[in-house]
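User: quick one, fold this
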Amino acid sequence: MSDDARVTVYCPAGEITGTSDGQVTNFRSIPYSHIPGDFFDAQRLPNTPQEPIDATVHRPESIALSITTPHDSRPLADLPVIVYIHGGRFENGTHGDRRADGAPNARAKVITVHIGYRVKLAGFAQFHNDEPHRYRGIDDCQLGLEWVQRNIESFGGDPTNVTLVGQSAGATTALWLSRRDHYRGCFRRVMAMSPCFPRDSFQHRKGSLRTVLGKPVTRASLTKLAAKNPRLLERGYSRFRTWHGLDMALGPTPLDGAEMTDLPLWMTSTREEFYHLPGGRTLDDRGWGPRAARFLAKRMGLSGSVSAWIAAAQKMDPERVVGRLIGDASNRRWVSQAAEQSLGPVWMSEYVRDATPALHCVEIPYVFGLEPGISHEQLLRFAHGREPLWPRYTANTGRQVCRTNLDSGTTEIVSDPLKMVREAFGPN
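Assistant:
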């Protein structure tokens, strides 16, 4: 690598060196906190410059953040900032999600930050002395956002114009960070793409984790187990996840829109979400969809008329009733609830495709400009602080939604596409 490809920024955190291709500059895997142990709260780094940071290489195993800027970005340029939190069921993912690469944003003079956080039990197990509603994985993201506030001006970003974007588990985290007991003014608006909240709390599931581990679920016990027998800990978590296989095994809950701030909120979902999961496909392919959906509905959180939901699902796609139930129970119900309960202005999008289902995660590269279409333009507009070009989502105006066809790039305004979800699942 030539010296010309290296770019160094001097910021309150210290000297940080990344790489540039002449158009876009990347600073990869920058540490933003000190983590004294997997199951302990992260600590804010000192307010004095640290040792020079080599941010030329992505280190996916680290809890860190990455920044993508225009090559010609300069301190105090006041460029809009998008902070992205990855998904992965609170089990997987890193701060280097290539589907949300920041290069197209940088070419449009918008800075992108990817924040990584602890997942699985390290990030989301709760212990007896933890504060209610707090999770280490989410507090990691909070520290990352605070690092951005202190340092992003040196990279050319505007700390007063930060848009928080999350997908799946990352969308859940973004909404949780918008709670009044968490919000610290580190972002001005939120885009939440297909959030996924567990239907039950970790406290109600702690007994099943204790059973599969054969150990107490305490900070000291899990710390000792992680040090002495990490394979046993991983195997125990795998069994715990299987035990709660019809739901998110981990994550913050419950969603309560009344606890959120009144920030501008853009909620999105894909129309088919989880058509592709093997278990659902098997039931649907064998023609057991309606019968299986009736059996599973209550266990998956459906509280309204099961018959009415099945009828609506069959009308949309008679071949994939269980696949639709999985997506509605896992994601679309939370999109609907957050939009209904939010105290601030809300807009909603639904992503569809022509010949193939619009599955969970399919929209990410379109939204971030790696695939062509209107979705990236919509994100850039939102990041500049301008309202989307379609009506707000309100009951009084018919719950209008922008439906975007990812294949054709066309959009249309439709009324209340999540009505069947709202009526079937209702509030949590």
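User: anything notable?
Assistant: The CA atoms of residues 6 and 19 lie 4 Å apart.
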